[in-house]
Specification:
Chain lengths: ~500, ~500
Amino acid sequence: MQKNAITPSREENYPEWYQQVVGQADLAEMSPVRGCMVIKPWGYAIWERIQKILDERLKATGHVNAYFPLLIPLSQLEKEAKHIEGFAKECAVVTHHRLIADGKGGLKPDGELEEPYVIRPTSETIIGTMYSKWVQSYRDLPILINQWANVMRWEMRTRLFLRTSEFLWQEGHTAHANALEAKEETLTILDLYQKFVEDILAMPVIKGEKTESERFPGAVNTYCIEAMMQDGKALQAGTSHFLGQNFAKGYDIQFSDQQGQLQHAWTTSWGVSTRLIGGLIMTHSDDNGLVLPPSIAPYQIVILPIYRQEEEREKVLAFCKMLQEQLQKQLWQDERLRVYIDQRDLQGGEKNWQWIKKGVPLRLEIGPRDLAQNVISFYRRDQEVKTRINLASDEFMAQASDILDEMQVHLFKTAQDFRSQHTQEINSFEEFQAYFQNQKDTLSGFALCYALDTPEIEARLKDLKVSARCIPLGVEHSEGRCIFTGEKTAQKIIFARSY
Amino acid sequence: MQKNAITPSREENYPEWYQQVVGQADLAEMSPVRGCMVIKPWGYAIWERIQKILDERLKATGHVNAYFPLLIPLSQLEKEAKHIEGFAKECAVVTHHRLIADGKGGLKPDGELEEPYVIRPTSETIIGTMYSKWVQSYRDLPILINQWANVMRWEMRTRLFLRTSEFLWQEGHTAHANALEAKEETLTILDLYQKFVEDILAMPVIKGEKTESERFPGAVNTYCIEAMMQDGKALQAGTSHFLGQNFAKGYDIQFSDQQGQLQHAWTTSWGVSTRLIGGLIMTHSDDNGLVLPPSIAPYQIVILPIYRQEEEREKVLAFCKMLQEQLQKQLWQDERLRVYIDQRDLQGGEKNWQWIKKGVPLRLEIGPRDLAQNVISFYRRDQEVKTRINLASDEFMAQASDILDEMQVHLFKTAQDFRSQHTQEINSFEEFQAYFQNQKDTLSGFALCYALDTPEIEARLKDLKVSARCIPLGVEHSEGRCIFTGEKTAQKIIFARSY
């Protein structure tokens, strides 16, 4: 094991390894606020990359951004019964609007509100209320609005990025004049999410529909993209909901159609969150720390100048700056390369290890000897830590983009292979039990089975800590028998443990 | 008066004119949540432009973004006495973490928290708490972090963009190893704000220091940029605070210096908010609605195709698209031109007025006749609504950037002239009273006077509804006498009514 590696390793203790990777990459840490994290600059820079690219893609498909209030009046929240049922247990409630002296040298809440407010756990309710004012005629439809915001769900068991009381996300909320268009929107977004997560985060995902018990509260259909982590568990990486007319009825979103008839609109909602960063970490990172695909890395290349005397320093730094300028002129995936020179006065090995743990794709070590020989020595984060590659300076320049391409593809392929190796077709309940009970010896992953979609079946799986992840889309099966009930079905479901 | 103009006009009723401009440009509206607004797509697009440009400039000066929790534990808030005093009266307080049935078919708060939380009115306290963990040695300094976030101050009298309970902003929080560096940071940011607001929003501002009674709770010095609106009132457009060691002491941000001595850090904080949009509106808009400077306009050019028959339609649209493509290739102020074709099936005059009210700098009307003659007919938003300009197509292409330059400069110059015309040197308290009591006949604006900076003086001005806006920076005066006390002073203060 590397002297500077993460302890424990993935094999030794996966959850603790995850915490260590996050901490040593300086991505985030827990705050004094229950269940809420601080996203530190390196972690936030990853979120900014996600925001930038996803935002461009959402705008290219006709969506615009807007901003709705953080607080939701209790009376608004109550209008969609299933929805409120789903969120009531985990709402932060605002009841007062000022603080006064408590007579003991401290402060206490004062100015009780006539009606309490809830901090948005999601915004269907407040946005539905506004849409009902904005929509009169079919001409006002579709509305294709997205919001980048913080939301809050009072979670009891929290983990950095994966499950926190407050998190950052985007939530799209659209309204349409007919069911078909709304369904198309739901699936268009699902495709957009898949492409984004696979192309940019290099995380292979399966598109599917959620079973009834995993559906979003108030939705008609919930679609999702599910990824596999390196411990075989599933991570829901994004969801897209077809809400039918449920929210339009609850919030009175009505329009007169081309025939002058009053109709309820058809709505959708969809979102991805800072949870994606958790998935990204667990998909690619290794026992040395974070590994970032070049498309999402805040810096793709870090240059580490190496020198002893002051005289060397100037020459080396001048060369590094020239190198940085030349690289930054290169376009890769329609953006300028992101290159950073680490000039801190730190011991070289320490610096190197900091960037390994931060997951930067390419590390360039530039010393006087490299200058003299006009050679670039570099390390790829997807290879062994000590595998040093030397290329003539102009060769490196010519190949930099190709190397990044190769890394992006390699990381995706590795994750895809891992998923294939840990996905198993399962034909009986006995086999199913054995597959998931075996966890400690061999890694269980996704179980693909003929199965019916009923809450009763899923209730039976709680002991195994397994849940239905999704009914994969676009896969045709001949008929088989449900492994739980023996009934005939042509439907397969993916089951797994999950985050 | 134009048939479609805003009623009332600025002269008739300035506050109501403002509301109408905001509403008719579709920028924002009030929500069912007390004092909170919905920022609609056109308004949010302006905020996104502000974010993009300001963010680039903050990063170029070495700042990085991060994200801290929305909630602040009451006990953390209490640690800086003056600070909490300043915000206690307007805090949204979270006291419960779930909802249960109230037995009357509704819901009520449940799960009382051991310690209440406050929704951040600003984040010095929670960020200070984190910095105390992060800072050990002088090597950990400076910390130059910015956050884009929502904040909440429970306001009793609210106005769209200018004063809302929830608003969006950026808040910078930096920590330094010595006072000098922290002071420099405070003023560097003040300069950055001035340049941004003047260059991009075309709003002339005066840099100054706040008097004691207008200082940020807990700050040693508060600096600001003050703008003048078209009703002569001042608008504080941004602030930058030198916090000295006050927060470092309250939150225990200590480091060992190069000599190994333990010291408290020196901190700063600074912010601008969605309030800037209110200032932007009130600086440039006219009796026809919003006027946007080209640098901040989400679209700089809107193309309105005009046709009668289907056959014309195709030709006209093809030409418009070609025009759009060519224009979008042009760089202006280092960015591609932003050009939109409005293809909606709406009557031409109505479309045209919508874009007038949305403040788009250039409107191009393209019909079959223009095509035939290869002429571009356009209107500038900073000129009379009916002033149509015709240019040969290639001439327009060659001149588009110059026209935008000219508009940007023209809007700034007009605002600057307005401010000059409504700024008066005042030499006695009688003159001062007359200046501000005269409001109804002649517009009063900024009064520049020799004055001491004491809370007692400012208390005397409350009847006039006037306050000290700032002590302008970088202006040398000979000595004079305070117009309120007669005492000798070399200090001049700007007084005004304000938002």
